[in-house]
User: Which sequence fits this backbone?
């Protein structure tokens, strides 16, 4: 309740200060279209509209893999939007190098972003040649498995507390007519689930060796052999999960049709929209309950150059608003993500978000794959994982060999 009152008060005062005379329309593109995501992005739009400007929503249905080429094509083709979402990392690097993105350095220095954005790697991902080109809005972590209490109750088995217990419970879930592991049929879901399993099974040092140091020997070695074997088991668990989108797979967990789902913490938004309560209706295991750490991925907004002074001023107002305390609270509570500011009141956070906050505070964090691998390398891994998860024709050993070759060629 407190954060709602703060947001309302902030919006009212901002409207009085700005007034409708300064209203400027900005089209904002993003791929947040599920129920939970739409509720979260509405908080950004409401705050911007209340400040006296106008948010023109440019939602693009589908995942980031669908939306990003459209966004990039518009920017390079001379039809830029006012602001656009990308993930933390290197996705907009070439656009920045081409001089197509607005430099936010002056605003960042004025508002002391380097002092308030935590961890610092988020702002580092926005920085090129010492200049800041984006505003981080959240921290999203892939390192979670979401478990349906109803599914395990129907199967007559206790809710697991770690990956090994989940594996042991899978046959009973299957016998009870449940799909043990829900997963949609999109490349990024397959690749993401593999990354979560890799950190849980191989450990953080091995993951860093592969994803940061690009060590192909580790990728092809015994630690990752265990990862691919675990992924092959998980591949069998997902049989019967005949859905496409990630939120459809989340709904299988919500309804008890599936035992669990390996998915980022954005899944929390779907549980919230469904009225489910963390710890009562569902459980969450960071690091699959094995290695309790989180990655610091998430979303940032870039502002393409528009050659319009009024719109550029509105872009800077929106960038500032996104990082304000009130918007950080309102947006992230709906999104299921963690704020990039550590000085906000999140007393309304649920049990799962509180776990994430505790892990973040402890420093048990790692960079997201988008921050360590180029889009080209990510695409090659996604292609491999799509093939691996969708068919038993490729063995764990063969998949590992091909994966090691991709890492060896990564830049």
Assistant:
């Amino acid at each position: 309740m407190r954060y709602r009152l703060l947001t309302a008060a902030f919006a009212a005062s901002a409207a009085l200060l700005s007034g409708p005379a300064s209203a400027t329309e900005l089209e904002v593109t993003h791929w947040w279209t599920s129920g939970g995501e739409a509720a979260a992005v509405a908080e950004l739009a409401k705050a911007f509209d209340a400040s006296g400007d106008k948010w023109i929503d440019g939602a693009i249905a589908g995942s980031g893999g669908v939306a990003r080429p459209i966004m990039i094509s518009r920017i390079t083709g001379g039809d830029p939007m006012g602001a656009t979402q990308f993930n933390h990392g290197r996705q907009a690097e070439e656009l920045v190098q081409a001089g197509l993105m607005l430099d936010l350095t002056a605003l960042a220095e004025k508002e002391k972003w380097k002092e308030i954005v935590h961890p610092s790697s988020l702002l580092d991902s926005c920085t090129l040649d010492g200049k800041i080109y984006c505003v981080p809005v959240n921290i999203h972590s892939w390192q979670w498995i979401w478990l349906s209490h109803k599914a395990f109750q129907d199967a007559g088995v206790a809710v697991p507390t770690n990956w090994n217990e989940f594996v042991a419970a899978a046959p009973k879930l299957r016998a009870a007519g449940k799909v043990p592991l829900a997963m949609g049929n999109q490349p990024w879901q397959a690749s993401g689930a593999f990354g979560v399993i890799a950190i849980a099974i191989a450990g953080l040092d091995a993951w860093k060796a592969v994803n940061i140091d690009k060590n192909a020997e580790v990728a092809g070695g015994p630690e990752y052999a265990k990862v691919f074997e675990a992924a092959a088991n998980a591949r069998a668990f997902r049989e019967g999960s005949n859905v496409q989108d990630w939120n459809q797979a989340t709904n299988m967990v919500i309804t008890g049709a599936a035992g669990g789902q390996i998915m980022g913490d954005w899944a929390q938004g779907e549980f919230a929209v469904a009225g489910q309560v963390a710890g009562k209706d569902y459980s969450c295991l960071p690091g699959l309950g094995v290695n309790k750490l989180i990655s610091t991925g998430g979303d940032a907004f870039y502002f393409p150059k528009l050659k319009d002074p009024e719109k550029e001023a509105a872009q800077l107002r929106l960038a500032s608003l996104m990082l304000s305390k009130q918007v950080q609270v309102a947006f992230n509570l709906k999104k299921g993500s963690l704020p990039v500011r550590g000085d906000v009141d999140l007393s309304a956070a649920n049990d799962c978000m509180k776990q994430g906050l505790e892990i973040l505070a402890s420093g048990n964090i790692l960079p997201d794959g988008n921050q360590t691998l180029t889009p080209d390398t990510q695409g090659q891994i996604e292609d491999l994982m799509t093939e691996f998860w969708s068919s038993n024709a490729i063995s764990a050993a063969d998949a590992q060999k091909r994966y090691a070759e991709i890492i060896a060629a990564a830049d």
